[in-house]
Write a structure and sequence with these properties.
By secondary structure, the chain is mainly α. Helix content is 74%, strand content 2%. Strands 1-2 form a two-stranded antiparallel ribbon. A hairpin with a 2-residue loop joins β1 (77-78) and β2.
């Protein structure tokens, strides 16, 4: 195609394409909000709390699946002894402690370290009653629901309160992005 209309898209496409190109992608706007609101320490705390909540929730799901028989695998054991997930948490925190003791600056603030710390803490916290009483009371009905709900709320609240201004900006940016996208769709139709 040559001439004055070469490379010009059909009517309506140019405006929509230019508008979409000018509007930053949602994830990019989230990154910008993080850069403005989160210090390296706050980033590590958000990752730690999010990892804690995610790990704790997944452990709850997996343990219920094993106990209920709807997961295709069972408990992990070594030499006939059941290995509780707090063992994995202790090993994880020992590794994180080693990183901290070494003082490797590149590793100390790394997101993977924060995530591992949150995960290890969740694995230990989930079986805290067992560690406290040295009895396997994991499935005891007394207080189990309140512990489950409390830990879930604690993880969500910690994640939010650690960086409240960041989450408020994320909500604002997301609302704006959805509104702009909806307006773009309605004007294109």
């Amino acid at each position: 195609m040559s001439g004055p209309t070469a490379g010009v898209p059909p009517k309506g496409v140019a405006a929509d394409g230019a508008r979409a190109a000018a509007r930053p992608q949602l994830v990019e706007r989230w990154r910008e909000a993080a850069d403005r609101n989160l210090t390296p320490t706050k980033r590590s705390l958000v990752i730690t709390w999010a990892s804690f909540g995610t790990t704790w929730g997944m452990v709850r799901l997996i343990t219920h699946g094993i106990r209920g028989g709807w997961l295709p695998w069972g408990n992990i054991s070594a030499g006939g002894e059941h290995l509780h997930h707090y063992n994995v948490g202790i090993v994880t925190l020992a590794g994180i402690g080693l990183i901290a003791v070494r003082g490797d600056e590149r590793a100390v603030g790394h997101p993977a370290v924060a995530a591992a710390y949150g995960a290890g803490t969740a694995l230990i916290t989930d079986e805290f009653a067992l560690l406290l009483d040295l009895q396997d009371v994991y499935w005891a009905k007394q207080g189990r629901l309140s512990v489950d709900v409390s830990l879930g709320v604690l993880a969500a609240l910690g994640t939010y309160l650690t960086a409240k201004p960041f989450w408020e900006e994320i909500a604002k940016v997301t609302r704006h992005h959805i509104t702009s996208a909806a307006k773009g769709l309605s004007s294109a139709g």
